Amino acid sequence: MITPQGAKHSGPARRGLALPESHRGSLAPVSAAPELPYEGVSYEEEPVNTGYLKAVPEAAPGQTTDVVGRPMPVFKKPPLLDSHGPARVIAVCNQKGGVGKTTSTINLGAALAEYGRKVLLVDFDPQGGASVGVGISPYDLDLSVYNLLVDRNVNIGQVVLKTDIPNLDLVPANIDLSAAEVQLVGEVARESILTRALRPALSDYDVILIDCQPSLGLLTVNALTAAQGVIIPLECEFLALRGVALLKDTIDKVEERLNPDLQIDGILPTMFDSRTLHSREVVNRVYEAFGDTLLQTVIGRTVKFPDATVAAKPITAFAPNHPGATAYRQLARELVSRGAVR
Ligand SMILES: Nc1ncnc2c1ncn2[C@@H]1O[C@H](COP(=O)(O)OP(=O)(O)OP(=O)(O)O)[C@@H](O)[C@H]1O
Ligand SMILES: [Mg+2]
Q: For residue range 287-331, what is the model confidence (pLDDT) as tens digits?
């Protein structure tokens, strides 16, 4: 069994999905919600969420709930850290394509970097979307995550690139990575190759986010083996739900056989459209099936995300005051409050 040295978190980091007692439970009527300290919160800490709060007509003035009716806490701006590392590794994973994995990896990473966390993004998709999204061209790379996997003489320090965002670094990928899946099949401990490759970087970062490709093949199993947490972005449409059970099955198998530390940090609804009942129904179904694994932050559908991709910037830099940027900052704070990130 190979698990990253020093990456095991005790205390708050292992609280995982635990929510305060007052925020548990099912669809409690909003009137029963406790008083929440919304008075005097800064813009940063407001539970703004791309318009969906407006779609909760029963919310009493001054009180807000999330999409499924849980009281929406104020996720406080996390205090700055006075030291960095060891990193907690989080795989952003869903075998369904186009659900917002790359968008979430980049923007969550950028939001955590804004809060002073040292963040390493690992592009683990031959499409190179995370690399492009932070302004790195996948075509003219000397070294990429592919070399890190297949060449034992290449170490992670040689592959990491700085981005224009302070505190945000990248292990880039390009089409070369598509060959790795086949090449690694015959390797010893083939599921733990990424674990080993990331280990020297753990002490330099607070969080390492792995942008997985849309498959459940060997590369994704490597990401799940290297990770302590998984974030599952889920597009708010019905077909999306079917894949989650399959993904959960894979996560359970990896946990059982390769990585007992693995846990699901949260399911993140993306492309939520507050104007449709459909989006809300999907989120409610996820809550019925997975309970508080469903994150309270929801990412709305907005064309600003593709616009930011074209500009090769996280939305937090491209349109810092847009509700999409605010939502990813809130996600960062929610994950810190859940203990998934320091
Ligand atoms: N909240 C959103 N609202 C609108 N468009 C979005 C949103 N999130 C992502 N997109 C867009 O949807 C497309 C797919 O998103 P993204 O690349 O993040 O998904 P993915 O799961 O990484 O896809 P793949 O499986 O191909 O890797 C992109 O064009 C992206 O800009
Ligand atoms: Mg992607």
A: 999 999 999 999 999 999 999 999 999 999 999 999 999 999 999
Kindly report the backbone phi and psi dihedral angles of residue 240, in degrees, each rounded to the nearest multiple of 5, phi listed first. Answer: -60, -30
Distance 270 CA to ligand 1 centre (A): 9
Cα dist. 139→158, 219, 228 in Å? 17, 21, 31
Please name the residue whose Cα sits nearest to atom 8 of ligand 1: 100
Domains of the chain: 85-337 (3.40.50.300)
Residue with tokens 């599921």: 191
What's the pTM value of the predicted model, to 2 decimals? 0.85
Torsion of Cα atoms, 19 then 23 then 26 then 31, to 10°: 180
Which residue's CA is the closest to the ligand 1 atom numbered 9? 100
Check pocket membership of 301 for ligand 1, CB cut-off 6 A. yes
- 294, 291, 268: which is closest to 111 by C-alpha? 268
Residue 250 to residue 192: CA distance in whole angstroms:
16
The model's pLDDT over 104-146, given as tens digits with 9 standing for 90+, comes to 999 999 999 999 999 999 999 999 999 999 999 999 899 999 9
Say which residues have a Cβ less than 8 Å from residue 273's Cβ, sequence separation at least 6.
236, 279, 300, 301
Q: How many Å separate Cα 92 from the centre of its chain?
A: 5
Burial per residue of 157-174, b for 16 or more beta-carbon CB atoms within 10 angstroms, e otherwise: eebbbebebebbbbbbbb
Query: Residue 93 Cα, ligand 2 centroid: separation in angstroms?
Result: 9
pLDDT at site 6: 36
Q: CA torsion 321→324→328→330, rounded to 10°?
A: 70
